[in-house]
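Title: Comparing notes on inverse folding

I've been comparing how different people in this forum approach sequence design from structure. To keep things fair, I'm posting one structure and asking everyone to reply with a full sequence. Here's the target:
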């Protein structure tokens, strides 16, 4: 036997139906802009902007820390956005979520070594100008991080370790093959 009397049962059904009309599915257009991300192109490259950046398994502080980056200027690729969180990927392919406050729009690169004739990693030449005949200023080992300047079709200007010069574009990670950097 029901404990709700018929007039109250009718009122209860009315409340339930009314509540269903009030609850509407959230459409993409109804999501507040602050939850949609930045509106900037994805994917894109940015850099780590702190000496200790925690990367998590999901887009919130409640998710466990997966990685810790300890290098300002380290380039990472944003592959997804949610609210204030950015899903990033590093040069090794490791992925995770980081708060946007720990990132900078400044561009950086990582040197990818040239391969020597004996299949060993060879240093990459930093040249005075963006051409093979230009004087070599320094030799950069694989993994060296630099600040990205402008790029031509085959060369990019970088600053690293107090040196500024040009490196062949194919030895750099942190930019797209046809991306224009001015």
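Reply #1:
Here's my take.
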């Amino acid at each position: 036997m029901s404990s709700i009397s018929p007039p109250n049962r009718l009122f209860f059904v009315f409340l339930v139906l009314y509540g269903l009309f009030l609850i509407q599915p959230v459409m993409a257009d109804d999501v507040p802009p602050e939850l949609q991300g930045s509106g900037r192109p994805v994917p894109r490259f940015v850099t780590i902007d702190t000496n200790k950046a925690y990367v998590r398994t999901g887009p919130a502080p409640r998710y466990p820390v997966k990685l810790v980056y300890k290098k300002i200027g380290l380039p990472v690729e944003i592959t997804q956005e949610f609210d204030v969180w950015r899903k990033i990927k590093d040069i090794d392919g490791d992925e995770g979520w980081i708060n946007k406050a720990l990132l900078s729009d400044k561009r950086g690169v990582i040197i990818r070594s040239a391969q020597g004739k004996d299949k060993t990693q060879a240093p990459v030449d930093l040249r005075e100008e963006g051409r093979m005949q230009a004087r070599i200023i320094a030799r950069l080992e694989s993994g060296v991080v630099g600040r990205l300047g402008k790029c031509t079709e085959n060369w990019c200007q970088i600053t690293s370790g107090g040196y500024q010069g040009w490196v062949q574009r194919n030895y750099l990670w942190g930019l797209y093959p046809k991306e224009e950097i001015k």
